[in-house]
Amino acid sequence: MENQDSGVCYFPRDLSRGKHGGDVFCLQKFLKKKGYLAEKPSGYYAMKTEEAVAKWQASQAISPAKGYFGYSSRKNYAKKHGLPSPEKQEELERELDAQGVKKMCLDVCSEFRGVYVCETRCVMSESDKIHACRDACQASFSASCDRAYPTSAPGAAEDYESCMEYMQRTCMDTCKPYT
Known about the structure:
The chain is mainly alpha-helical and 179 residues long. The protein has six helices and two strands; from the N terminus they run ααααββαα. The protein has a two-stranded antiparallel sheet with strand order 1-2. It starts with 21 loop residues before the first helix and ends with a helix.
């Protein structure tokens, strides 16, 4: 299992060509660090990202290795990084809702250039608070960066990349009380 403090990513959705956002940026950083992607992370899932994902999938024996970062890839990534698996999270949420069990919820908010976004994640156990915090932080930070630096604006790509680079450090600091 890899060190969780090395900038792990949370993937609440499947990723494929044409997707954009902080989860894509985080995936690209991971692929670059592992040597599968030569390009600088941009947050946009294009052909080079798809090819890099396919190489990573092949190295992990994920079949088919076609570059679609779907359920099998998200599950593999989560397991390798000691994160809750996608189905565990979804199953737990349904179970808790059905039982009417009280959950502990964390709100994480991010603000850039007047754009304020909050995300909430709920858990049942103290040990899952760190994951809830990091997931909510990544989601809120990503949404703030997406809205503050729209891709159509001049210089947006560089500003967006800077915003996303700042995310990792900020989320680690924000979620430190739960480690």
